[in-house]
Amino acid sequence: MSTTKARADSLSLLLFTLRSGKLMAINLLKVSEIIPCPPLTKLPESHPHVKGIATLRGASLSVIDLSRAIGERPLEDPNGGCLIVTDVSRSKQGLHVQAVSKIVHCLTTDIRPPPYGSGKRSYITGVTQVDGVLVQVLDIEKVIHSIAPAQIEMAPTDLSMEDAE
User: What is the sign of the dihedral through the CA atoms of 59, 72, 75 and 52?
Assistant: First the structure.
């Protein structure tokens, strides 16, 4: 097998835990950084799964309580844990999680479809085994779009000068 083919068939996953302690994963390509949870500013009238806004290097960052967003109990220490800063649909969000475990590399063929009966509303895109432990792979786009649907944005260059005025 050539190295190009091996790279095309492999996937890097960031493993993390929520309050339940079970291992979950997201595609590492969607992660821009991992930071300790900074102080958050609550927003009135925001979605119930949005914990607040953090300031990250001068920019505002929405912080999603990932436990609540996927239907689990909130984190035991609401001010602890860490943020996985994701870059999805050309916007950054912070995912508040209990702890980040490690990065693993696996083959795409090692990821199996979600178990039968998990339902169409499930946020799990697949499952895999890491060191003999079952890991659920999260569809982070589905989670984020259920909270803040993707907005269709037109670049200014897509408009004629007349329309732009």
Answer: positive
